[in-house]
């Protein structure tokens, strides 16, 4: 396809690399893949207080709109509205990664008439007051959208907002590129920090915020009798509280708080752990890409039976174990079962890797995403 004839695509969301998170990962995967087929630009907000800046990230032009800070986890950015209007008027398709009310508002105010694709990652769950104000705008956007991308059928069924728009929804799971985890040197960042060299390594990665269930994991781990150490890779508002709780529980010497780590080191951690746990407790956790990262490394996963797509990624009794949300006792039992059974861990880990290669290959996922974005 000639350069001048390529369609123009704007991908808009809250944050982008180097910010680390599931939505940001999907945005980056989409942008880098789509730049081969469309003139692709990205619009997001700055993480920190500051003016608008523009960069090229791995070949993709990215605009980080200036921000005054955040309210209810949402950036306050008037610059975003202006940048969106300027960019969307030159786009054939805009893809909005939600939840991010500023993007909904930006589209409404822009008067854009072209193709709109909504990438629906999760419902707004906790910000009840904001949701009261946001709901009419959200419903307008869902009516306006030409297509709605969801990662699993559970995204539709568990949402109070998507079922009326079921005919617009297209199920395309998230994916990863196995080569990024295989053809690279594997270091041992967890093993090197073990206080007991014989201990099994349990890994959690993600923000230390309410819906991730890190507090439940800590309570459950306190009752684990097997020889194991727990690693938290990530930061968040709950970190000081979790550290204090580990001290109170008398397990501080078995728990490692590693802080924020960049992607290469995180990939080494997935390869180095014995068991990965995603103990999420609320529907804000709609999929859990981190499960795929553990699974492609042949690691079993313990997840929770949320009504979202989480338990559809790693399957109970096949690639790991699924426990009820907020059930520390059940989580303890699941960890004990896998820690004490090397053969079962190996069996689940092997099946986990095979499932990723079969169902969540990035090339297949992106090919299907392209069909929706370009409507062909």
Give keywords.
eight-stranded mixed sheet, Rossmann fold, globular, 376 residues, 2 domains, alpha/beta
What does this structure look like?
This protein is of the alpha/beta class and 376 residues long. It folds into two domains: 3-175 and 362-374, Glycogen Phosphorylase B (Rossmann fold, 3-Layer(aba) Sandwich), CATH 3.40.50; 179-359, Glycogen Phosphorylase B (Rossmann fold, 3-Layer(aba) Sandwich). It contains 14 helices and 16 strands. It has helices at 22-34, 78-88, 101-110, 128-144, 153-157, 179-182, 214-221, 239-249, 263-272, 289-296, 310-313, 328-339, 342-359, 362-374, and strands spanning 8-12, 39-45, 53-57, 60-65, 70-71, 74-75, 93-98, 115-120, 147-150, 169-171, 200-205, 228-233, 255-259, 275-277, 301-304, 320-323. It has an eight-stranded mixed β-sheet with strand order 3-4-2-1-7-8-9-10, sandwiched between helices. A six-stranded parallel β-sheet has the order 13-12-11-14-15-16, with helices on both faces. A two-stranded antiparallel ribbon has the order 5-6. Helix 3 links the parallel strand 7 (93-98) and strand 8. Helix 7 crosses helix 12 (328-339). The radius of gyration is 21 Å and the shape is globular. The model has no long low-confidence stretch (mean pLDDT 93).
